[in-house]
Amino acid sequence: MASIDKQPIGVFDSGIGGLTVVRALMERLPHENIIYFGDTARVPFGVKSVETINYYTSQITEFLLSQGVKALVIACNTIAAVSRQVVKAMSAVPVLDVIEAGALTAVHCSSTKRIGVIGTMTTINSNAYSRAICALDPDVHIVSQACPLFVPLVEEGWWEHAVTRMVAQEYLEPVLMEDVDTLVLGCTHYPLLKPLLKDLVGERIQLVDSAEAMAAITENLLCEQGMMNPEDGSSPEYRYYVTDFPLRFHQLGQRFLGCSIRDVQLVRL
Q1: Domain range holding 199?
Q2: Which of 16, 138, 165, 177 lies 20 to 30 angstroms, CA to CA, from 259?
């Protein structure tokens, strides 16, 4: 097996949204090898029972650990909310997740202790971000808003479409009325809407991009534990595993990553 610093980072999601985390990792850690796992045959996880999500998560974790990863990144808000402890119990390597990353960054960014969180219906109903933020600072006032139409609009490619702008204005109105100074983008699809959202909320409100927050915390972990892959002139290796192999993964994935996707392999769990 390769030395620990050269081993890949394992990133996983129930589908394709976690590729925004991969993109952020590529930009922040350009020498790191990365394995991405998307459970495209069984997405979405949010409509399934806790027992089923835990079972699927344990299968994915077992697979990625078998690939010799040096850290696991949960790039799925549903899995982070429901099954984080399942992953940690199975893993001998560090486990990071987007909810923890978003919460830490939001608390650090907010000066007024008034934080907004937007996400899918499942994530918002789980109160996972509220719990994570309050665990860090119980004095924070949190305003949560489900934005169920954002994911299909992003996957349609309507990132700056007039319809998306109109929907976003409706979703954001009750959040902005609470005078927040920080807004957490609590879904890995939402970073693709960041220019539009920034235009709507203005300069006064800091947007917390869950993908960028995840990359920053991953970098800190690798530095602290001496696991950074040193620059040696070689190109990093990126591998993608999916449980279903639709053309849509290539089409959407390239939009999410901003580059072409190669070496996609089908896995039967």
Answers
A1: 99-210
A2: 165
